[in-house]
Amino acid sequence: MASPGSGFWSFRSEDGSGDPENSGTARAWCQVAQKFTGGIGNKLCALLYGEAEKPEESGGSQPPRATSRKAACACNQKPCSCPKADVNYAFLHATDLLPACDGERPTLAFLQDVMDILLQYVVKSFDRSTKVIDFHYPNELLQEYNWELADQPQNLEEILMHCQTTLKYAIKTGHPRYFNQLSTGLDMVGLAADWLTSTANTNMFTYEIAPVFVLLEYVTLKKMREIIGWPGGSGDGIFSPGGAISNMYAMLIARFKMFPEVKEKGMAAVPRLIAFTSEHSHFSLKKGAAALGIGTDSVILIKCDERGKMIPSDLERRILEVKQKGFVPFLVSATAGTTVYGAFDPLLAVADICKKYKIWMHVDAAWGGGLLMSRKHKWKLSGVERANSVTWNPHKMMGVPLQCSALLVREEGLMQSCNQMHASYLFQQDKHYDLSYDTGDKALQCGRHVDVFKLWLMWRAKGTTGFEAHIDKCLELAEYLYNIIKNREGYEMVFDGKPQHTNVCFWYVPPSLRVLDDNEERMSRLSKVAPVIKARMMEYGTTMVSYQPLGDKVNFFRMVISNPAATHQDIDFLIEEIERLGQDL
Amino acid sequence: MASPGSGFWSFRSEDGSGDPENSGTARAWCQVAQKFTGGIGNKLCALLYGEAEKPEESGGSQPPRATSRKAACACNQKPCSCPKADVNYAFLHATDLLPACDGERPTLAFLQDVMDILLQYVVKSFDRSTKVIDFHYPNELLQEYNWELADQPQNLEEILMHCQTTLKYAIKTGHPRYFNQLSTGLDMVGLAADWLTSTANTNMFTYEIAPVFVLLEYVTLKKMREIIGWPGGSGDGIFSPGGAISNMYAMLIARFKMFPEVKEKGMAAVPRLIAFTSEHSHFSLKKGAAALGIGTDSVILIKCDERGKMIPSDLERRILEVKQKGFVPFLVSATAGTTVYGAFDPLLAVADICKKYKIWMHVDAAWGGGLLMSRKHKWKLSGVERANSVTWNPHKMMGVPLQCSALLVREEGLMQSCNQMHASYLFQQDKHYDLSYDTGDKALQCGRHVDVFKLWLMWRAKGTTGFEAHIDKCLELAEYLYNIIKNREGYEMVFDGKPQHTNVCFWYVPPSLRVLDDNEERMSRLSKVAPVIKARMMEYGTTMVSYQPLGDKVNFFRMVISNPAATHQDIDFLIEEIERLGQDL
User: Fold this and answer.
1) pLDDT per position as a tens digit, A15-62
2) Closest-CA residue in chain B for A296?
3) What was the ipTM of the complex prediction?
4) Given its phi and psi angles, is residue B276 left (phi above 0), alpha (psi -120 to 50 degrees) or beta?
5) How far apart, in whole angstroms, are the C-alpha atoms of residue B272 and residue B284?
6) pTM over 0.80
7) N6-(pyridoxal phosphate)lysine (modified residue): where (chains A, B) (predicted)?
């Protein structure tokens, strides 16, 4: 292995005299840096002057650092007391960073430089004069750079360059004109919280190794259940790696509730189980059914009205049909905010049917759950309080960084019974604290990433009212877009009426198609419009919005607004851009 | 909502004159800061002096920033050109940060202050004079602070305090004396990479929104397959949220390979399937079987020798037994590095049996996979190249921040066929780039966190040889511990012989027990020793190591070493600490 050895630091005092104490400028820098940032200034100054770090508890200066314990590292090299170091990363490697002896200084400099790269990216992300994406085709990107992994280490200069290169080609998902997914935006407090989560680098399975995070998960899930409307916020829940897994958990728990023997005996021991969800629901319901050994054929897709809402009478009809065949309906998954139309299934009517036939009612509110934070819009989820389980992804409408998805369950203890395996190496029963905080056995995962802190810290920073303001604004922007295009030449709405969520679905019809009759040829040509405009958007890098076909409707744009940076002007820009890029088609 | 309004910035020049241009000290700070860190110095200085940021591509000074596009925000307030700002966070809220108008300055200051908190934590994490944990019982922590979520926002001063409080009670998982889990340590390059991942805030499902990360996943998985020994690194794979999910994926794919109709028809359409794994294997195999509708009764636990290795003859016997009953063996999951003993199942013998009976061979190398990076130790996984699938968690032995778990599959295309649902809103078939890079449909997850970048960047920084050096060192430390305690008074080894992995399993026998006969009473008293010592370790906060019972063996310590910060002195310390805390028991 390459070992840079000594001499890779270049130290000199500002006046060239080599005497740090005489360097007025360096002293001045420390004073200013301390005032300005408080932290790194202090830390670096202490290092530069060879002073020990002051412990938090004590106000005294230069406390003794040496204790009766063994020193931090065995070597005798002390940080030199020169005032300033020019770090030459070309001579530094990962092995020079902490926990290396004398690794503090290069580590702080390196991490600070990484942070500078990130801060520049953050600022650029919000700058409308930058591109949303600097698009390259996969083969171009593969050829342009050497991404391969090798035996030998690279130096830290190269590592910093990789960070810059990676961000150069990244999608700026916080950019005010990025509308491509349900998760958009970059929240500054959420970002800070995610950095902290990475730094804490722990696992959610036990209180033992994640005490604060486990408590915050407890507090946050309870609050979410209160908002759903379960009495006193009672019930259960967990943060899982995404809405698809949350939905699969709901299916798993619903099955276990009805047939607990399935855990040991498998599906062979139970009758044929049938799940119901709307034809506009998310594909994860079918994925879950395939994985759980239920099979996709046992997921019945209920018809929707023209706005994409499940038709309750069709649900009841299909339940009766299935029962007549001797199969067992075990789950209805209603959707609150469908992926494409943003439709809200009629939860009250679905709840009545589920009650009547004693079927587990799940609400997939991955996308629509955020509206529960808004006094103006939460009526769209009326009936969610009657659900047995709810998927709610704060990483979508609430703008929490990826990933943050919660499954909430009304009955307490069911998740634990369903999934627990009592691993004695993790969940020792003779621990010295309250074991109910060891939540790991509720999940299929063993190790579980800390996803809660981002949401908790954002909630503290914004308050419920802050989320409400964000959501109301996004809904208002969607209505603004709808009002502009509903009667505008060259636009056709995919469904009539004001959007219930921020999804606005429309075709842009280029001038050449406007004269055509509504026939197959026009449909065929129209289906090619959105993909071409989208490809051009990406090549210009000006904006990004999604498109897809759905049922008998050919490719249309699905505009969604969850980005807190978006303004009316950005909506105007989007329309102009679609027309600029599509008028010749 | 509270709105701080204007006037929350307090600007003054260093000499009190109010004239920034005359402030020599501030100028000096900028000069020094630029030299020292390169980045934030430049950025803040540019802001403070009202200069536009210099674009990366251009070397010219003060390029025109205004373009024909719309300006970044509609308001006309310009950053003031004062030299230095004392930020009073008590008057600032999340709404003052980007994307707010004029949000750049408070955002940079806020994120920098968060970073300072994190850097202090990083430095402390490696300092042996700090506690590994400042332990409090759950009810204490809940009472000591108000963690509740409220309607109204908190100011940024409070948010920064929450960050400090959260870290105050966090476990320092990077601390040189933290040995509690298989995942320990805090790698500086990995941490930097995770910060970048958070900042990029995107999703792995399509190339469209994660171009670089998708390519890096491709490159990295291929490299891992090469190391496993599959010709040319061919095959398939994915990063999943933890080893338990990776193991479940293996089970899912193995079942699909044998009975593809299970996807549509469910378990009702197939015969009873049986999986085999050792009695020392990870509990996730049973969790997976329960979830997939196979049932835990259909997971047969094969006997292990006294070192914790699966006994091949028992495997073959149980396979024959099952076949005789008319059931279908579909999966053998061998373990390379068991959780407690660190045992490696005899993969070559298992491979022969799997071949003979045409059973999918999975290797759960979540913990042991790292040894493949070491020329000295990889022989312990001989035969892994014959597996059909391998779980390998770089977040364990290789020290990548949590989470980073890979499932590698020898047959290409199987994951896609098994899990795909062709969601047309994500995986549009008329996109303008090579769709093979849209990997999202291989997974059960829809949104998928970017877990690869940490590993890729660490690999570039360390090289394969760097991982090898780390792994060899950890194994050497484990041997050092073993050699010290194997003949030391007061210690009994749980199994004989040199550990194959870094797991060293032992009882500490306090003096009062050493005189007792080896009977039930002694066992009963011995079983209480490790929990008490562990509780005391946590209360003193000096070190952390795990314990558990296993089979007929009462609570014993399981020491594992994956922490790059650990040294021989830390091993010595651990022994002294166990004796100090346990001698009175």
Assistant:
1) 333 333 333 333 443 443 443 343 344 444 444 334 433 333 333 333
2) B264
3) 0.89
4) beta
5) 20
6) yes
7) 396
